[in-house]
Design goal:
By secondary structure, the protein is of the alpha/beta class. It has helices at about 50-65, 95-110, 145-155, 165-175, 215-225, 230-240, 245-250, 270-285, 305-315, 340-350, and strands at about 5-10, 15-25, 25-35, 75-80, 85-90, 120-125, 135-140, 160-165, 185-190, 195-200, 205-210, 295-300, 320. The chain is globular, with a radius of gyration of 20 Å. The structure holds adenosine-5'-diphosphate and magnesium ion (MG).
Length: about 350
């Protein structure tokens, strides 16, 4: 029987599960499921969903795919949110025994405090004791975030093989399926519900990842205030009509469409654009690179019609819906339009080590 591996992505709004099966003929996405954590009319909570609902959504994705979580070996799970950070840091040469404590100090600079210890994972990218410095890829989270995630998995009955950060999973979904040009800077924008994650990857350039506090929830909030709707209604409206309906209805003449016509304050998409611009400027300042070819758009909010075009026009960079599945086999009827939302789970499922 073909070997199966699973990638599980527990987000702020929905849970995604991807099953891969591999044999001589190649790798196939043999199954997938997406379950929303919130019920239809329940309001989104920026502090995170009720843990019990998270656990039941995780159970449901397994149930939908007819898998017993405790029987599934090879489950790789991603962990994300504001308390998870992945940064490339430059340090003086560190001996193995001083790595942990020096990096814990470094990690603290990138993590919001939640009264618990930082836990770390790191990878030396370049340098040794003889070099002038070391480049280290540092992944950090807080003990509290990590324990509650592990406890939730335990409750569901999952023994994860690998737990890794979301932004690395997304980059891995590319590295493990596509040809990587050594000179290119790859940009990934994953727009979830609570926030968006912008990640820069270059095989010889700085890895940089940043959480931008605007996402699908903020699009829904704009619609709610604009149209005086309940949260659930606004969310449904968003999924049916997108967020550019006002401009479309008015037949905007070449202007970037948006809710800005009626909303006096900045719209979520304008704030998002501003924050992306800031990050692009920062990256250019740090590395001298400004030759960004394109941005891959992922996450559930990537499914909003016209968002890729809007971002492309505003940022003057090609923005394309992320789909790294060209080397994978897909079953007949596979919901290809969900690939951007499944990308993190796919990246986790592809991990072999
Ligand atoms: N078809 C769609 N059209 C517009 N927005 C969508 C659609 N599907 C999902 N979303 C939005 O995407 C967000 C969820 O994306 P996801 O990447 O799963 O988030 P997270 O990883 O934070 O759980 C929600 O805000 C949801 O409303
Ligand atoms: Mg997500």
């Amino acid at each position: 029987m073909a070997k199966r591996t699973y990638g599980l992505d527990v987000g702020s709004h929905s849970v995604k599960l991807v099953e891969l099966s591999g044999d001589k003929t190649g790798v196939k996405i043999s199954n997938c499921a997406v379950k929303e954590i919130y019920s239809a009319d329940q309001e989104f909570n920026l502090e995170g969903p009720p843990p019990r609902q998270v656990a039941s959504a995780v159970k449901e994705v397994f149930r939908e795919m007819k898998i017993h979580p405790w029987r599934a070996r090879n489950v790789n799970a991603s962990i994300g949110g504001p308390y998870v950070s992945v940064q490339q840091v430059r340090t003086i040469p560190l001996a193995p025994e001083e790595m942990e404590s020096s990096l814990a100090f470094e990690a603290r600079k990138h993590l919001p405090l939640d009264e618990s210890e930082a836990i770390l994972d790191f990878q030396i990218l370049s340098g040794d004791m003889e070099s002038s410095h070391m480049e280290i890829l540092l992944t950090a989270t807080t003990q509290k975030t990590f324990s509650s995630f592990v406890n939730m998995m335990k409750e569901v009955g999952i023994k994860p093989r690998i737990i890794d950060a979301e932004s690395l999973a997304l980059v891995n979904s590319y590295l493990l399926t596509q040809k990587v040009e050594p000179e290119e800077i790859y940009l990934f924008l994953e727009i979830g519900a609570r926030s968006s994650k912008l990640t820069f990857y270059g095989s010889t350039d700085l890895f940089f990842s940043r959480d931008i506090p605007f996402g699908g929830h903020h699009f829904t909030e704009d619609i709610r205030s604009l149209r005086n709707l309940e949260y659930g209604e606004a969310d449904r409206f968003k999924k049916e009509n997108g967020i550019f309906f006002e401009a479309a209805a008015a037949g905007a003449n070449g202007q970037p469409p948006g809710l800005s016509i009626k909303v006096a304050r900045k719209t979520a998409q304008q704030s998002l654009v501003e924050e992306i611009r800031r990050s692009l400027r920062y990256y250019t300042k740090e590395t001298g690179r400004r030759d960004f070819q394109r941005i891959f758009l992922a996450g559930g909010s990537a499914l909003i019609a016209g968002l890729d075009t809007y971002l492309g026009q505003e940022l003057e960079i090609t923005v394309e819906l992320y789909d790294p599945t060209d080397q994978l086999q897909l079953p007949v009827g596979f919901p290809r339009q969900l690939v951007p939302q499944l990308a993190v789970a796919l990246g986790m499922a592809l991990r072999q080590d």
